[in-house]
């Protein structure tokens, strides 16, 4: 391989890198061009493969590095085109039916959320116990923690968001339960929901106290956007409302779980492995003088 | 322990400040024989800096990757360690003092702006991939700083009357070494991005999220790759090659140190 072909392939590489740089720069400055990555993505991947092929003869480690880069770009494109995800919000102790389009329907139970705290009150660790029951086959009981999703068939289940939930029970004047409503809190300290009593719509705003505080929940009731009552409620307390009664049933945990299947991911991991092989080769291999190429 | 860390941090700042001041005196030919004082002052600074980081680690129970103060301070320490290793292997590189110590002092000033905090480890931060991500981030910052210092000196050599011009190896050697550090930086950046992607996938279920700093690291990757490829493809002059390294360094600084402050994202609370 002569100097000319080496330099010409390098000259081909420069505008390709420039394109990558400009796209990354635009994304970095907040221009939403995620979809644009597909346009140069395919030629970029094959350009990198072609370059790896050209330098294979005299710089094998570097060729591995570029081959890995190409595989990573391809994996990214597969992820972009084929990544599937489905979200579900569940209160601890509840079971919900989930039907991600690429999986057979399953019932998902969020059993408990265990938390540990540092002495200063900041969160040290959390652990969500879940149970997945497919329509066919055995149930899978597992634990999801930070950095450790639950593997289910070809997908992974992550707990992406968690917080506290206040469950309220709605009863009519005779005490018969009409329904339940959950108020969910994560970073927000208040949540609002509308409740349909017979003949009345009441908007309820519930504020949650600071973590560890023994203060009861702050409850404000609105009818037609007009505040008509404010009170403090702890679990078990009843509050008369027009058309029935409202009871704070319990304070518990809730979470948003996401089921994700990403077929591009194994390709990206393979690409990283090939890049790593190239890096090791570059570090331990004999360097080729520039003029010898 | 935290108090000891703060005290030793300031001892390190004074050590680097003394090294910078004496370098300046040497630089303007007032006292060339004081070069030894520069090394001693910087050595004292680095020793105090190491103790400061160690005390901080013991106080908070985790490595320097949670608050801006500890991250910046650790990055600067890596730069100094890289420089000491380089000086041991290449004693003729002592002229780099002229650029490196002022840069180190500025970095320590930046670290001092952010108050040291006792921030305990979050559950999401407990991952061996995060440790790899952070270690290689620091190594890449350290190596690009050294490459930048060398590139600046290649540019400064055009002023032959400056004392520093006579305290350096030939520019060909200087630029070749600078390119080795850019190459090392690219390798470290690649591992940093890969480890960060694996960690992000375990945590959020996606390995890439177009976070400003994620795309910024891709920009830096592109910039370093461009520096390496342009030099070989076009056989540019040494001055142009040095300018390219300076530009790549600016890109890295912009995306790793300035972007997390001005743009909200997953890395907003941190520096690389």
Please provide a brief summary of the model.
The complex is a heterodimer of chains A (293) and B (272). Chain A is an alpha+beta fold. Chain A has four helices and 14 strands.
| Contiguous helical run count of chain A | 4
Uncertain residue ranges of chain B:
none
| Estimated share of beta-strand residues of chain B | under 5%
* Percent range of helical residues of chain B: over 70%
Largest sheet of chain A: 6 strands, antiparallel
Number of strands of chain A: 14
Rg on CA atoms of chain A, Å: 28 Å
**End-to-end C-alpha gap of chain B:** 25 Å
Euclidean distance between termini CA atoms of chain A:
6 Å
Which word captures the global form of chain B?
A: flat
Order of helices and strands of chain B: HHHHHHHH
Question: pLDDT average of chain A, as an integer?
Answer: 79
Low-confidence stretches of chain A: 1-6, 289-293
Largest interface: A-B, 49 and 44 residues
Order of helices and strands of chain A: HHHEEEEEEEEEEEEEEH
Oligomer: heterodimer
- The counted number of beta strands of chain B is 0
Describe the biggest sheet of chain B? none
Number of helices of chain B: 8
From the alpha carbons, calculate the radius of gyration of chain B and give it in angstroms. 19 Å
Descriptive overview:
The complex is a heterodimer of chains A (293) and B (272). Chain A has four helices and 14 strands. Chain A is an alpha+beta fold and 293 residues long. In chain A, strands 1, 6, 7, 8, 13 and 14 form a six-stranded antiparallel sheet that branches. Chain A has a four-stranded antiparallel sheet with strand order 2-3-4-5, with no helix packed on it. In chain A, strand 13 and strand 14 form a beta hairpin. The radius of gyration of chain A is 28 Å and the shape is elongated. By secondary structure, chain B is an all-alpha fold. Helix content of chain B is 74%, strand content 0%. Chain B contains eight helices and no strands. In chain B, helix 2 runs antiparallel to helix 3. The radius of gyration of chain B is 19 Å and the shape is flat. The model of chain B has no long low-confidence stretch (mean pLDDT 84).
